[in-house]
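Chapter review: from sequence to fold.
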Amino acid sequence: MIIPKEIVDWFKSIFASTNRRLSEKILNVPGIPEPHLDTTFVEHLMSFATPRKFKGDWAIRIDTHFLGGLAQFWRWEIADIGVFVFFQRRGQLVRQKVALLQSKRLYPIVGDVVELEEYDYMLGMARLNARYGPQSPILANRLFRFTRSSAYLALQPGSEQTEHIKEFIEKRGFPVYYLFYNPPRVPLRISVPITKYVKLRFEPVLGSRVVAAPVVFKLLDKIKQSPTLQELDDFLDPTEPTLHLGGWRLEYFMTDLLLACFEGRRFTDADAEDLSEIFERRSGPIAATVAVTVEMPDDAQLPE
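The token string follows.
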């Protein structure tokens, strides 16, 4: 890839910090609902919306837009986060790519995850004051425990969402990837209430991982149940040197694969109708978008 190392390193550091932020959120709020992790992902990237200039007339900008709404309400979204990558010279597009991320969090083998149901979206902010019946004391001790036997329980073979994604890939041809939200490491025990909030200052051993949807579907067809971290890791190709525990690290996928044009799909004006259906309709099957724009000098070339 012709993108200078200075830009590649900076871009990877952005998504490495995103990975740390997501892992830190699970560490401090182990029962957090999955949509809140999507919000964390997008919110963290908002800090980098101002264009960053590099040597040689290179520049890069990361834009975000959170949609939410009906796609989450009806629970059949094709992806939670859509990622665009635009390459341009003097403001003129040279190449554009897209990848779709469907997120799923790892559930503890001990401890409950807060689920956001249709009722929560109907009730809105009033749910914070909706206290019907006796409540558990906030000082009540609870334990959350994560191991390799923890499962991605919201990922189910034959579910309506899984079948929608399969149909979408076959019909539209746009790649979908599963973004797996994990704690920073396993095994892990978290006692609640906590005594202090933890700031994660190291790269998570586990953290957020990315796996292509067709690979995940093959695993689901094989095991006929929600996969555990161990099952996912065992199923991945052990000869693939770029894979990490439970898939590609988030920052590796975004930088070495997507930005470097090895993953994702290039698109043109001929794909406008399909992309409009995904991203522009308010009731479309996606919750948030991330757009990465790379400004290149006149003499820069992209690989075919």
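Two observations follow directly from the output. Residues 277 and 298 are 34 Å apart (CA to CA). The longest helix spans residues 5-28.
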